[in-house]
Specification:
Layout lengths: L1 H11 L5 E3 L11 H20 L4 E4 L9 H18 L6 E5 L12 H11 L4 E6 H6 L7 H14 L5 E6 L1 E2 L10 E2 L8 H10 L7 E3 L11 H10 L10 H4 L1
Parallel strand pairs: 1-2, 2-3, 3-4, 4-5, 5-8
Antiparallel strand pairs: 6-7
The chain binds zinc ion.
The site of zinc ion (ZN) has 4 residues, from loops.
């Protein structure tokens, strides 16, 4: 099965491939047992990534459950260092994704993301920028000036050298709602122009963009959404036959 995966990946022509860890992981938990299980799970993903020669493992940093971000920062950084040390040969980056900002969240603003990355202090750590989570946590990107200001802030707080990939999703919920609900590209509160403006700015264009949208009748990410994004980037639409590789 591994061989089949590797062969299909090679044939797909995709620039990168990534694993997404389960949502139960919480490196900011005050509970020792949950912390150990979260570390164990991420180690497993990193080992799997090594076997599949994947580029990264994306995870959500979790929730401090009232203990406060500052109080949990060192625990999170220590846990991430431990994971990286346990899997020293994995080519995969350990990639922290920004969250939408619900109660007790960690990594729900660029400042927190930047502090997590700085505290781990490893070039094997990257950041995934999810556009829906960014919008839900209050960063507007619906005008050119807002895109400039938001990405300026990302550059200052995190740094584009840390950016590993983009999760491109529109938002079913309004700006600053702190709710994680993805919409198809151009059908949500962000709107199609936000994606056009993000591509136009160019600072996110050096990394792969992945979609996590509901698709038609909630059948999952589809070619239609990919082609909407490609149009925003000024790229020609892909043909149906090629869609298998990108799903
Ligand atoms: Zn995401």
């Amino acid at each position: 099965m591994r061989q089949t995966y590797l062969e299909n990946h090679a044939a797909s022509g995709l620039r990168g491939h990534y694993l997404h860890a389960v949502y139960l992981i919480n490196l900011a938990t005050p509970t020792e047992q949950l912390l150990r299980q979260s570390i164990g799970s991420l180690v497993h993903y990193m080992q799997l990534a090594e076997l599949l020669n994947a580029d990264g493992v994306v995870f959500h940093p979790g929730s401090h459950l009232g203990a406060g971000f500052d109080g949990m920062l060192e625990q999170m950084a220590g846990a991430m260092r431990e994971i990286l040390d346990t899997v020293p040969r994995s080519p995969a980056k350990l990639i922290v994704e920004n969250s939408a900002g619900s109660g007790g969240c960690v990594g729900c603003n660029f400042g927190q993301l930047g502090r997590i990355v700085a505290a781990v202090d490893s070039d094997r750590v990257g950041v995934c920028l999810d556009t829906q989570h960014m919008f839900a946590s209050g960063y507007d990107v619906r005008t050119r000036d807002q895109v400039t200001a938001t990405l300026d802030r990302f550059g200052e707080d995190v740094g584009f050298d840390r950016l590993a990939l983009v999760h491109a999703n529109d938002s079913r919920k309004p700006l600053g709602s702190n709710v994680d609900r993805h919409a198809n590209i151009g059908e949500g509160e962000m709107g199609i122009d936000a994606f056009r403006l993000l591509f136009e700015d160019g600072r996110l264009n050096g990394v792969p963009w992945l979609i996590e949208v509901p698709g038609e009748e909630h059948r999952g990410p589809d070619l239609d959404n990919i082609n909407r994004l490609r149009a925003c980037a000024g790229l020609p639409a892909r043909a149906v036959a090629e869609s298998v590789a990108v799903r």
